Amino acid sequence: MSSLLDGSALTHEKDVVWLEDLSVLDYVRQTIDKTPRRLGKPRWLRDGRMVGYAELDATAEADPDSGLHRRRVFFLLPHDRDLEPDGPYAAGAPGEAVDPRTIEPKAVGKKTPRSQRGRASV
């Protein structure tokens, strides 16, 4: 199983940068954001915290209308399992959640027993 993202949006990824230690995260949420740059940490104006992001290769072109690049961003919300282990995702996970250990450039992350049911299921 994969996340809700379509892999065709990831063709220009060259690297994934992590801002936190993955060994303590059962899952991360992934989304596509529009950013003005191909490289570097994008601005984060959403709830929760950014835990990683993708950088794009030199051939990635910005949208001709907006001038923005589509980049994958990894994040967690305050009620996610890492901060609330007995909260709403003590078992189960949000639809866009994937195991961060399965994330690579150009490849949609995968759902695993750890990401879906918690550390006890590994």
Outline the structure in words.
It comes from Streptomyces kaniharaensis. Residues 80-122 are annotated as: Disordered. Pfam families: DUF6009. Residues 108-122 have a biased composition (Basic residues). This is Transcription factor. It contains 1 helix and 5 strands. It has one helix spanning 113-117, and strands at 13-18, 28-35, 49-56, 69-76, 97-98. The protein has one domain. The chain has 122 residues and is mostly beta strands. The relative contact order is 0.28. It has a 5-stranded antiparallel β-sheet with strand order 1-3-4-2-5, with no helix packed on it. The chain is elongated, with a radius of gyration of 14 Å. Helix content is 4%, strand content 26%.
Helix percent reads under 10%
Sequence stretches where pLDDT stays below 50 over 5 or more residues: none
Distance between the termini: 17 Å
Strand content: 25-35%
Morphology call: elongated
Mean pLDDT: 89
Helix-strand category: mainly beta
The main sheet comes to: 5 strands, antiparallel
Radius of gyration, taken over Cα atoms and rounded to an integer in Å: 14 Å
Q: What is the number of independent domains?
A: 1
Written as H for each helix and E for each strand, in order along the chain, the element string is: EEEEEH
Query: What is the count of DSSP helices, taking H or I runs of 4+ residues?
Result: 1
Q: Tell me the number of strands.
A: 5
* Sequence of strands across the biggest β-sheet: 1-3-4-2-5
